[in-house]
Amino acid sequence: ELYGLNVQDIYELSPGQQWMFDEAQVVTSTFFIQALMKIVGKINVAAFRQNLDKVVNKHDGLRTAFVHTGLAKPYQVVLKSRQAELLLRDFSQQDESEIDDLLEQQMLADRRRGFDLERDVLIRIAIYKLDEETSAILISLPHITFDGVSSMILFKELFVDYAFNESGKAIEEIAAGRYTNYMDWLAMVDKDQEKKYWVELLADLPAFRGIPGHQP
To answer: 3-state class of 79 per DSSP?
Structure first.
């Protein structure tokens, strides 16, 4: 009912996704991936939007929602089409000494806004114009859809591929792996054997290990 005829695939959650979902159905600071980068050079917003749409269309994880209302358990729903949120703001008239504080405030506000995993588009990008030649780009997404390795691939396709396109240089297209292949593999994994392996491997570790720099 939420997505009408826009549903492409429906999956059960992986064990890691289920754990994160149980901890935070609305993702704020927990499991929240956020990156801020400053770019020297004018940004062609129309071309960036076009590249962003292309990347979202390529990856199932960027067109995903996690449905749970009225259901016995949650499901991951991949939509046929979804458009990422792209915010544009002009900070070029702000005092240069205030820019870093303003950007930090934007990051904090975005984390507080969080992601409703059932209803929100699970990627947001904001472009802040700092002056005629410099912009800051903030990207936010929940960890439940992307891990660290996947995020690096995403950043490359969003920013490096955009830059190559703008310069007129050819880029090598790499086909995205289908999420259904991962889920098929996961279904064949012997979970008892996997648990046994890790229990034996970690058996000699203390029950609790402190985090460096953290006082209990």
So the answer is: strand
pLDDT in tens, 52-93: 999 999 988 899 999 999 899 999 999 999 999 999 999 999
**C-alpha distances in angstroms, 164 versus 49, 127, 158, 169, 189?**
15, 19, 11, 5, 40
Q: For residue 59, what are the CA distances in angstroms to 64, 86, 152?
A: 9, 17, 14
Tell me the two tokens of residue 138: 């903030």
Three-state DSSP at 147 gives coil
Alpha carbons 39 and 49: distance in angstroms, whole number? 16
Tell me the per-residue pLDDT of 17-34, one tens digit each, with 9 for 90 and over: 898 898 888 888 778 989
The full DSSP string for 13-35 is PPHHHHHHHHH-SEESSTTEEEE
Side-chain half-sphere exposure of 161, counting CA atoms within 13 A: 19
